[in-house]
Please model this.
Amino acid sequence: MLALRLARGAHPLVQTRRLLVALAAAGVGFLLLCTLGYAVGHPERSSAAVLRLLWCVLPLAATVQFAVAVARTDPSTRPRPGLSAIGLGPARLTAIAAASTAVACTLGSAVALLFYLHLRGDITGLPFDGAAADLLAADQPLPLAAALTLLAVVPVVAATAAGLSLRPRTRPAAPEGAEKPVPSGLPWGIALVAVGLAVETYAGRAGSGDGLPLPGRFDGSPAGVLAGWVLTAVGLAVAGPGLVHGCGRLLQAVRPGATRLLAGRVLMDESRRIGRPLGVVSAVLSGTLAAAALYDADAGADAFGPLTALGAALIVACTSATLLTAALESRQGRAHTTEALLRIGAPPTVLRSAALLRAGVLLAAFLPLTWAVAELAALPLTG
Model:
């Protein structure tokens, strides 16, 4: 009840972010229900149905990442002085954040179920009654227990991830004068990217014909190619913080001025917060470019179906929204530093120039990387 009251009295921008989480959960829930409909309508293709269900893990992971980012920026779950005296300590605020995330995702799952039943023709009286009856196996009864189990996956996973991300942590104090924990995932990320590209190339040249059927059409990509892309995406996400930290060091090299020094220190301090979402966005964009190259090379064939497009749109939208939310969290985290700089007379133009410089350096580092990974990933797909 407390989580509902806090959600009702939140700022409109916070409510908008929660509604976006609910919308993303509705999209993932609809994909899961469509996979269930495929399994019900094609009982002889159980292995294909399992593979379709596994493919839905990608939009599910993007949605959970977005839900956790929204929970981290929720003002109602931020510790403030005096809250512990009324029983709202860090542990209770973490529980409230998990409950708010579960409520938003449950709302989305309910919308997905209603929309799915409407397109099947089970709910009438609205436009598009039974518009996708053939695709959703309307001639077969829907197993309610299986549908509810699938719809519960998003709220349970998102709430658990939000609780684990926001749980109180006790960290040992760093030695006096020591620099903060530099991100150490860059070598591992580079290794994962290399392994992923090697797996994609080997699977693409092997031509074994073992396809991984995706929701919709686009059933011709070998499973090894998609597994290699997943490894590449994980590698970019792991390497992201190290790349951002390196960009911050590069800005401060060779006698930096006030603007470069400020921009570089901010990038180094925020490398863990924005590096991983930036690496995930880079991975998603590289995969999108590779898929577009495959579509252009497919001699005009209708390779992508509507459900494949929905899953891809969910991944792109959720990862982009996660990056924007992480940038907002970073801005909120350094609000006191910005106010202190303004109080001591720092001109606002310096702060704006530092922000533009940070954005320019990150674009200069990640855009060529994204293009290079996309080109290498597209080679085994286009022959």
Summary: The radius of gyration is 23 Å.
